[in-house]
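Sharing a chain and its predicted structure for anyone who wants a worked example. Both blocks are below, sequence first, tokens second.
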Amino acid sequence: MLLMTPLIAELERLYKGAEIDIVAEGTLAADVFATFFSVKNIYCLPRRGFKHPVSFLGLISRIRRTHYDLIIDPCFGSGFSRTLARIFKGRYKLGFGEPEASASFTHLVPQTMAPSHMAQRPVALVRWHASPAQQEGQGFPMMDIRLTDGERACGKAVLRELLAEQLQHQARCTIGIFADATGNKRYPQAWWDEFLATLEEQSPECALVEIVPMQGRSMLGSRWPSYYSTSIRRMGAVMSAVDLMISADCGVMHLAVASQVPTMGLFSVTDAKTYGPYGSRNSSLRTRNMSGQEVARHVMRTFPDLFAAPGLPLKEASPATTLADVVELAGRIQSALGS
């Protein structure tokens, strides 16, 4: 759902005043698109719908009563998504695939024309449909759940309370850490210990806060202030208040990006070209065979305005040293002018 937010932004740009219905599996779509002005209806199909046939078929029947101007199947290879797009009623039906693959679609775009990134594919799809000749040179909308000013203010207030002690010592920046992921995308705790020890050693002025995963248990031994919520919007609001989020490839990484916070995504297995954070102040790193220390130093080099330079912590620089350098430079300039 987070990866679909650029599609809605592009539809709003192309079709001013359009009313958009979203059909999704599970309930999270209602939270993701809660503040999208153009979204009229959000239909949340029950997960494993055929185990709940009455509610599932009843909702499908309700959606079929609407005759849409345009139906979009934005997915690669999803038989369920393709089936829904076929049975819903619409003047035009748009998706990826070869033209001869589905007679029920009015417009099919070969997958070879799609961008690498999953969030950008549906944007390119609707651009091809609206104006094939005007795709070159256009950037892509950012992922964005459109947090309200009130949500952001609440997130800042929560973060201030979490970091009250650290902020008293004039923290240079606040770094959010999400240390969970599924399967072999997850880094072991010893790796995170090395990573965070390096950050603390090189930039002790940075305050750390852990975003706790859905099981409600710290992945870092409860060594730092932490925040937990079952609401993705509240979690996004708190993350939006930090200066940088660091996360392995997972849904929370996408949520951080969609909350408009600078995000560093760490990729040990999956392809960063397909799933990595994109846009200004976002970055990704392929970490295979890299130690936690090496990754930490890379992160600090990527965001030099937030961290001290690796090998030269800010604590080693003092006002006296800086003043001496200035006096010495002034003397050199004066001598040069005199000669």
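Comments welcome. The longest helix spans residues 319-338.
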